[in-house]
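agent: user wants the structure for Glutamine--fructose-6-phosphate aminotransferase [isomerizing] from Lacticaseibacillus saniviri JCM 17471 = DSM 24301. delegating to structure tool.
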Amino acid sequence: GEISKGTYPFFMLKEIDEQPIVMHRLVDAYTDDEGQVSIDSDLLAAMKRADRLYIVAAGTSYHAGLVGQALFEKLAKVPAEAYLASEFGYHQPLLSERPFFIFLTQSGETADIRQVLVKIKAQGFPSLTVTNVGSSTLAREADYQLLLHAGPEIAVASTKAYTAQIAAEALLAKALGEVKAIPEAAQFDVVHQLGLASTAQQALIEQKDLIHQWATDLFATTRNAFYIGRGTDYYVSLEASLKLKEISYVQAEGFAAGELKHGTIALIEKDTPLVAFISDPETAAHTRSNADEIAARGAKVLRIVTQAQAQDEDQIVIPDIDPLLAPLLSIIPAQLLAYYTSFDRGYDVDRPRNLAKSVTVE
Ligand code: G6P
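agent: tool returned. relaying tokens verbatim.
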């Protein structure tokens, strides 16, 4: 029947709130009675033969694909790269000898992705569609499919599909690493980690009032905004900035924190809002000093920091988790920042101008 938003003013807020449950649903869907990760053995055999994974997607799903690269490389020791579907099909890079294609798509109907699927099938390469809609075109036409179990996503701005895609990639990378006997996969307790992620997401969601206050302080009247991070925090910056721009019409950019000084820092003025994601242990100190430098130029800076990297002055602290999965947590306050900015400006949060939930033209 008709999906209801219940007491929520908009589907987007409901869907943000559903993310902790979706983590559990994915674990249930992809573990056996003993609690071991269990994924279609034919799919894993096909992936095991591959010498490189090509992750092809668009929009938010592409950002989830960027996060997936490190999961597959670290846990399954296979090179993995995410590509924009609209670019890949017409400028196909020189492929490895045994490529395997992963199409990430909430709707399973994105035309940009389908044109890639058609082309790589004609070349005889194997493929998997990871999607929220089992009956979709891309689910039917790929060799294999994995479902996201996120439940219908109604708001145009994607939230729970993003975190579901990252969790699904983690489960798949763990399973692939295990069939390849990779020690890092054996050590990565994905079921435990996704349980931690669910609990931590819930704790962040319960800080709505604090995050709403930050949305007001940073974005109430601004016309532009910056998000920075390094490693996976950079990929979160891209998704965080997309959330803000699609529903609040604030021009927002996500940057690799180290690159800001090579040009973009010229845009920083008094009161320019900047959000810094600091979870990556390798680069936390560098990103922190990049954020300090922006603050010294008069910017308003919000730091979203993992417990392990936190300092006294940090404003939003997220619980510790395996760094590979930090995006599952750090995106939550960013989704809420975007939501409240749009809501407070009086926009139709679920139906932003010029956008469609699924884009079936190239
Ligand atoms: C549209 C939506 C985006 C989405 C993108 C990819 O542009 O507005 O929110 O990320 O399509 O959609 P897909 O269904 O393939 O994940």
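agent: one observation worth passing along. The longest strand covers residues 99-105.
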